Amino acid sequence: MKFRKATRNDVPIIVEMLADDELGKTRENFQLPLPAEYLNAFENIIADQNQELIVIENETSEVIGTLQLSFIQYLTYRGGIRAQIEAVRIRKDQRGLGIGKTMFEWAIERAKKRNAHLLQLTTDKKRPKAIKFYEDLGFKATHEGMKMHFKK
Fold it and tell me: Using an 8 Å Cβ cutoff, are 71 and 47 in contact?
């Protein structure tokens, strides 16, 4: 597998993966041509040195997964950096093959390389398999997460 930064050409593939699950299909709008909001967001992400939108390719250079790492500078932890992993997706026909574990191993090493003192994530409570997967990787539910959604 090859890990690389996403390009503009990858955005439709990424959005299709984001929309291809139980929760994603309710909040994403995958269609071609892709709505401009996604391309605008991509431009903002690649312009920010603290954001890394990554795609994973198989041996035939097909994109089979994606993740986004954000590096957040804090004053706490003596000016530490937290890495946050979000939007982890694997193409449906590639799930169950150990790709997710490899993606997280890569992300953990990338966070360490950027001198992060921790890697954090959130996951929806409606995803019990994902929660078990993260726990098996060594993640611990040490905090109670809260969100406030705004209507558009």
Answer: no
pTM: 0.92
Cα 95 from chain centre: 15
CA quadruple 41, 42, 43, 44: dihedral, nearest 10: 50
Question: What domains appear along the chain, each with residue ranges and CATH number?
Answer: 2-137 (3.40.630.30)
Spatial separation of the C-alpha atoms in residues 86 and 68, rounded to whole Å: 5
Q: Which residues of the chain have pLDDT under 70?
A: none
If you count DSSP H runs as helices and E runs as strands, how many of each does the chain have, helices first?
6, 5
Distance (Å, whole) CA 39 – CA 10: 10
Rounded Cα distance, 112 and 123, in Å = 22
Q: Name the CA dihedral angle for 43, 49, 54, 59, rounded to a multiple of 10 degrees.
A: 110
Q: pLDDT tens-digit profile of 50-64?
A: 999 999 999 999 999
